Amino acid sequence: MTAAAIATALLAVGNQEQMVEALRRGFQNPSRPMDTTTLLALLAALCLVVWLLARLAEPRRRREEVAEADYLTRSVELLNLDRGECNDVQTVARHAGLPHPTAMLLSPANLAHAVRLAQRVHPDPQLGQRLSKLSVKLFGTGLGETTDADGRVG
């Protein structure tokens, strides 16, 4: 099979009949063996195609990450939280590394768990107190845990 037949087959991806015909001709009439340069060129073309496909799939993953952040933002808007409370919730979500940060707004136990995780990574003495007040505002009860002298939940 000649390099030209393989190259023609690769370029004819849009039309399957042309691709099959080019491959058939290459198998029927091998005029010369494939040299190293042609083989390297085909390998480079294949790598380029794989790289392009990977790049096309990447924005989809980014959109999914943005959608998760949008759920948290939308939840904060629906709860009518002020800018400071919104920043505290987003800070906890970021530092806690929660797979679904919106879940922390479903119950005081979830919020307390998220605050504990965030405090391990980034201790903030006032954050526990502010979020305990937020828990009272949202759920009618504090975080359910005592805060230490530094204001940390736990």
How large a portion of the residues is in β-strands, by DSSP E? under 5%
What's the rounded overall pLDDT mean? 77
H/I helix tally: 6
Q: What would you call the quaternary organization?
A: single chain
Number of strands: 0
Distance between the amino and carboxyl termini: 71 Å
Q: Biggest β-sheet: count, sense, barrel?
A: none
Shape: rod-shaped
Low-confidence stretches: 146-151
Question: How are helices and strands ordered from N to C?
Answer: HHHHHH
Percent of residues in helices comes to over 70%
Rg from Cα: 29 Å
Indicate the structural class: mainly alpha
Describe this entry's structure for a reader:
With 154 residues, this protein is mainly α. The chain has a domain at 60-154. The protein is built from six helices and no strands. Helix 5 packs antiparallel against helix 6. It is rod-shaped and about 85 Å long. The termini are far apart.
Summarize the structure.
With 154 residues, the protein is an all-alpha fold.
How do the helices and strands line up, and which of them pair or pack?
Layout: H1 3-11, H2 16-28, H3 36-78, H4 83-96, H5 108-121, H6 125-139
Helix pairs in contact: 1-2, 4-5, 5-6
Provide the descriptors you would attach to this structure in a database record.
mainly alpha; single chain; 70% helix; 154 residues; 6 helices
